[in-house]
Amino acid sequence: MAQGLSTGWFLVIGQAGRLGQAERMSSDALRSCWDLARMRGGVISRKEALACGASPDFIDGMLRSGRWLTLQRGVYCVSAGQPSRETSLWAAIHRAGPEAALSHDTAAELFGLTDERCPLIHITIPESRRVRPIPGVVLHRSVRLAEAIHPSLEPPRVRLEETVLDLVDRAAAFDAALDVMCAACQRRLTTVARLAAVMGKRGKLRWRGDLAGTLEEIGSGVHSVLEYRYLHRVERPHGLPTALRQARIDAGGSSRYLDNLYREYSLCVELDGLQAHPDEKRWQDLRRINAITEKGITVLRYGWIDIDRRPCETAAQISSVLRHLGWPETGRACGPGCAGVRRA
User: How many CB atoms are closer than 10 A to CB 13?
Assistant: First the structure.
């Protein structure tokens, strides 16, 4: 972006030299516009350009010539060419006005909470303000924005924990809300304690009761919806011993983290999500399993259907393997007609 702005600076100087005396702006004012825009993704508002000393005629001339581009009403990019993502975000913030902050899916993108880019830009403004609809922008309002906004990051955005809870509050299903919470901790972007502290400050929060009981489990290493279901549909209901979550071992010359390790019995239960693995990833997984087995650890591997639709059968198999490895118990039925207990 800096190189594009530098090029734009020389183009602007040349354009200014070709304008008439009445329309020419001083080089000091032009440099002030460029310096201000450079700190904000190459974006400047008409009001800011006028404050830097640019005349209305000069601004209009730059727009007509294509040296400056209109991104939002009264908001310009001072460099020609395709605007970057950062530039588009700054333009939306300028258009939304004072105290606006990127939030929800857009803040999640900037924090690395998600790997996907939302086509719409999400912005939160104070509850007391009213802003006309902005093309390509979803506007939210908050009475806590002054507290929720990050004090230093730019473009302005709400804090990570606030972003997580904004997405949780919008989730239509508990699994979606849990997935956001798990992702934030699994990617080491925040901690359970920080999330709990922010939850306590919110008067209303969807899924509060359900999620409050899972925070300790997330903190202990439950890093996905599948791992949560394993705990609540397989391990606990069938009386299996408590596994160590995300157990770290050294195998194959590197550190490995195991989803569920029954250390006393050298049994690892690995869980695979719904995503399809490309060939290279599949071979990496096989090498990983082989390295774990080389350490003398028995590995059982299950997918979504095994945990979600056949939890009793899965528990029966794990129970059987545990008994072969020295577990002195047999587990228990999760309810009347438990298929796993009948099989065991």
Answer: 13
State both tokens at 228.
């949560």
Residue 90 lies in a domain: no
DSSP letter string over 26-70? PHHHHHHHHHHHHTTTTEEEHHHHHHTT--HHHHHHHHHHTSSEE
Q: Could you report how far apart the first and last alpha carbons of the chain are, in Å?
A: 64
How many of the other CB atoms lie within 10 Å of CB of 189?
A: 17
Domain boundary among 189, 211, 233: 211
Instruction: Dump pLDDT digits (tens) for 201-257.
Output: 998 999 999 898 899 999 999 999 999 999 999 999 999 999 999 999 987 677 888
Indicate if 18 and 41 belong to the same structural domain: yes
Task: Provide the percentage of residues in the chain whose pLDDT is more than 90.
Answer: 66
Segment 8-38, tens digit of pLDDT: 443 444 444 444 443 444 577 778 888 999 9
Q: Is residue 92 part of a domain?
A: no
For residue 143, what are the domain limits? 97-211
CA atoms within 13 Å, Cβ hemisphere of 279: 0
